[in-house]
Amino acid sequence: MKKSSAGSSVIIIALVNLLLLPNASLGDPRAQVSKIMCGNQIAINNTNFIQNFVSTMENLSAQLPTSSFGIAESGSGVDTDHGLVQCYGDLSSTECVLCFAQARTIMPRCYPFNSAKVFLDGCFLRTEIYSFFQEYTGPNDIAVCNNSTRKNSAFQASARQAVSQAVSKALNNSGYGRAQVPVAGTLNESAYVLANCWRTLSDSSCRACIENASASILGCLPWSEGRALYTGCFMRYSDTNFLNPIPGNRSSTGKTEIIIVAAVSLTVVLIIGAVLGVYISKRRTIQKKRKGWDDPKELVKTLHDSSLNFKYSTLEKATDYFNEANKLGQGGFATVYKGVLQDGREIAVKRLFFHNKQRAANFYNEVNIISSIEHKNLVRLLGCSCSGPESLLVYEFLPNKSLDCFIFDSRKGKELNWEKRYEIIIGTAEGSFQDDKSHISTVIAGTLGYMAPEYVAHGQLTEKADVYGFGVLLLEIVTGRQNNRSKALEYSDSLLSIAWKHFQQGAVDELFDANLMLHNYHNVDVKKEILRVVHVGLLCTQEIPSLRPSMSKALQMLVKKEEHLPAPTNPPYVCLTQELNDTCEDQYLPLDYSDRASISTVTHSTFYPR
Fold this sequence. Notes:
The protein is an alpha+beta fold. It folds into five domains: 2-23 and 254-289; 33-128, Killer Toxin P4, Chain A; 142-247, Gnk2 domain, C-X8-C-X2-C motif (Killer Toxin P4, Chain A, 2-Layer Sandwich), CATH 3.30.430.20; 299-396, Phosphorylase Kinase, domain 1 (2-Layer Sandwich), CATH 3.30.200; 404-593, Transferase(Phosphotransferase) domain 1 (Transferase(Phosphotransferase), domain 1, Orthogonal Bundle), CATH 1.10.510. It contains 16 helices and 15 strands. It has helices at 2-19, 46-67, 93-106, 153-171, 203-217, 255-289, 296-305, 312-318, 360-371, 404-407, 418-432, 453-458, 463-479, 495-504, 524-540, 551-559, and strands at 33-38, 69-74, 81-87, 116-120, 123-128, 142-150, 176-182, 190-197, 223-229, 233-238, 327-330, 334-340, 346-352, 381-385, 392-396. The strands form three sheets. Strands 1-4-5-3-2 form a five-stranded antiparallel β-sheet, with helices on one face. Strands 6-9-10-8-7 form a five-stranded antiparallel β-sheet, covered by helices on one side. Strand 12 and strand 13 (346-352) form a beta hairpin. Helix 2 (46-67) packs antiparallel against helix 3, helix 11 (418-432) packs antiparallel against helix 13 and helix 13 (463-479) runs antiparallel to helix 15. The longest helix is centred in the middle third of the chain and has 35 residues, at 255-289. Residues 1-27 form the signal peptide. ATP binds at residue 350. Keywords: ATP-binding, Kinase, Membrane, Nucleotide-binding, Receptor, Repeat, Serine/threonine-protein kinase, Signal, Transferase, Transmembrane, Transmembrane helix.
């Protein structure tokens, strides 16, 4: 009991110290995406490329907290990966780490291309297969304008003045400058500007980059906001104050609030401490039963002894060493290959892009869960391999042609009229989810477009996660569009976001797949049926899991057409105030480089590994 008390006391002290930190005020890490630029060369050796990329990211991550900047090189020869990360000058160390975490998560969207630039509003991340650290100009340098609000001449004059001031400050302040210029004739309106060069540049290179960027960004006027995304620098102006307080000055602000919060919270912390004492005592008892999971050797032994284990070398031989000729497809996190085991069994091997040994315990647990599920709409997971340079998942192989071969094909799509598509929808719902207990979404094996957001973020694997994936499938079948890659050039949103905005505007029929050839239908009930399917799809993909219907309820909604449907709330990752053709984060993401995930390959009643 003494140990428990001591442990709780340490936690109390740590919590109180956290409350009393002089830098407790956290600003905005500004992790919104400005633009993602992917290279045009594909990695030659995927294994080396992935290992070097991960090593570079880890190296950058280690440098960032102390300097808000980092450069790294990993590998050798043609496989060498070069990386640079820099946070803009108004971000604190904590904000910088948060911004980098987002950029690092986004960058794999460019895979399998071997170079990428990620411009966030708070930081910049770049990787290449050559040393680029002295580059300050490039063919992809661009100004991105927000064409939503036109400003008057007074704001334009202030913006020009603020840009000039920020450039001057940057050239005399190691490449970083910021400015705020009030707008004449207004009470509280100003123009705000930030300019930042990368620290690897010489003074002359920084000057050249930032002067070119400033000239380019002023071309965005009279619009309210503009960004210059250049090889060696970043610049932004806006009529909204996006600048964080200068990190060094934050300790002097909000002291009164912090003291009040600390005083009020102290009592709560003491109560929590008492509860923690009991909790820690019980947790130690539980940990004794699970002590093997914290020991990597024990975990490897458990995996090795498991019936789910496959030798990495066995899977290499089965796929002819991951020969491109055996490649079946590529999703958001992995590439799938066809393989043949020595006993003649055909398998599908999912080769995960990133291997993290720290996640081995979770990986093994998820494999256990998924492999234990058997129903006719789920391809059986045979096992896994964690011993090689990357993690592998092994599925049974189904040679059937999949739904996406038809529904996303402009020619073959005509073979699936509405009657056939509706039959697939009802058959899927009836055949696979009758007990509402199927758990088939997994962050390890899944594709982003079909994974419920609560599982992506928190690992909550529930029937409501399956309902989410089913809702995505409904929308894709109706529209003939992939969730993670819209076919229409005017959109860079996900299908969920597009469907939601059209639903709000009463324009859902604009999304119907042209291959449905609805002009051939004279029965108005067909259109009503399709509208109802979209409505149910949006109910299944609501952001809050508790609001989603169960699978049995979703089936009832589809079949009982006279039943009133509740109004859906917004799906995840949707900016509630955006216009029809706007997006929240990926507004400037080129379609060709959006998340390369495809529909779960499906036959009439068979899901392909996701």
